[in-house]
Amino acid sequence: MAEQKAEGRNTDDEDVKLEEYTWDEIRKHNTESDLWVVLYGRVYDVTDFQIDHPGGPDVLQDIAGQDATEEFENILHTEKARKMCKKYLKGKVKDAKLGDLFSEVDQGKDGENMDNNENKPAVTNTIVTIAFLVVAAGLAYNYYLK
């Protein structure tokens, strides 16, 4: 289970080994053919991901060479999207405190900031069952009492 949780996550040992980039260096990578973004103090080269980005390449191009953490979190990216980030990890911002890319989804798993998604299938099944019983009762009423 711990192995599954670690998937796509950077360890402290990995973070220490990341190459450091200054903001001046990062800001230069702001074109369609050379596009970096920063999330939680880590630098990601998303040049090759632009075409596959579900929001389209323009979204990434608008934040190229910048800290995109706030925009990333405003979109409520899934855990799957966060795991994908590691593939594009380039380095870290020099002298920056590194944050936790998974903190928002981990909070949801712990029950904080959660919409109780675990109960949605049960609610849906209950509604479908009730609807079926109402239709069945209506058919039985028409058949036996008319």
Strand order of the largest sheet: 1-5-4-3-2
β-sheet strand percentage: 5-15%
SSE succession:
HHEHEEEHHHEHH
List the uncertain runs: 111-116
Largest sheet: 5 strands, mixed
- State the total count of DSSP E strands: 5
What is the first-to-last residue Cα distance?
60 Å
What coarse outline follows from CA principal-axis ratios? elongated
Computed over alpha carbons, the radius of gyration is 23 Å
Give me the secondary-structure category: alpha+beta
Total of helices = 8
Mean pLDDT across every amino acid position: 85
The percent range for helix content is 40-55%
Summarize the topology.
Layout: H1 2-6, H2 12-17, E1 20-21, H3 23-27, E2 30-31, E3 34-39, E4 42-45, H4 57-62, H5 69-74, H6 79-85, E5 89-93, H7 103-109, H8 120-145
Parallel strand pairs: 1-5
Antiparallel strand pairs: 2-3, 3-4, 4-5
